[in-house]
């Protein structure tokens, strides 16, 4: 049974120093020694990868949480991307430069970008890489889609697909949380390139069986799945814009296949419209309910009839006054007694 030994603070500090030294060489923050040249940089990159992938969790936690290491990583990110952009633009701005020299310089910078993507993914700084990749996307695509580069630099074009796949995967599946405008910008920049390169590489491969550059099936599926997930998570108006462009893209409609994202958008749109109609119907029902008190007010008017009924006792009081007539009738015997008195007087 292997016994885990907790690293001492001195060991952790030494590990951090070694990592920083290797990372600085790997990102060319310090110029490599002339006798070694790029070999030292390559060895330093391998050392960084080894420390990140094979270190114990405790050591890896120190490396990924240290603020000085994060600062060096961001400096290295800036340095590598600056070198990459400069190398790319030399392809167009220096036409007299030998193609092989330019290609070597560009592919070296592209390899640094890909290496850094893997490293920052492991150190928890992938968000910085994605932000920078999004910023340089338009510049990169301007160069690789230039007519002068149409039939060359296939290795660069495939590498761009591979790095973009990692970026889309991180954003599309929620590993990184970006605001909707940033996600839409990333997708709108790379979606046309992805579908065009897929068709072009397949066509070149079909025409020439020895054509070495292809979009492997795994890469193709990874990119397609990430794009579908990314589109489905965008606001409805952004989804509608992207899906409308996809449906009118003609020969590019087969890849990436966004039919799943389209079905999700249709379902959500129908549900939203139904809820909207229900919400619009509610005020009319409420107004009908508000009209009901008018009947109640009519009911409140009924007591006027009741008041009329209450006035009926006045007739009853008149009836009660009838006994006065009866008392008058009772007074009539006095007249009869007067009549008897008259008869006695006549007998006398």
From TrEMBL:
Task: Identify the keywords attached in UniProt to this record, alphabetized.
Answer: Ubl conjugation pathway
- Pathway in which the depicted protein is active: Protein modification; protein ubiquitination
Q: Where is the At3g05675-like ankyrin-like domain?
A: 95-269
Q: Where is the composition biased (Low complexity)?
A: 323-348
Show the Pfam families listed in the entry.
BTB-POZ_ANK-like
- Tell me where on the tree of life, at the top rank, the source sits: Eukaryota
Please list where the region (Disordered) is annotated.
Answer: 281-348
Q: What does this protein do?
A: May act as a substrate-specific adapter of an E3 ubiquitin-protein ligase complex (CUL3-RBX1-BTB) which mediates the ubiquitination and subsequent proteasomal degradation of target proteins.
| Name listed for the protein in its UniProt record | At3g05675-like ankyrin-like domain-containing protein
**Which species is this UniProt entry from?**
Cuscuta epithymum
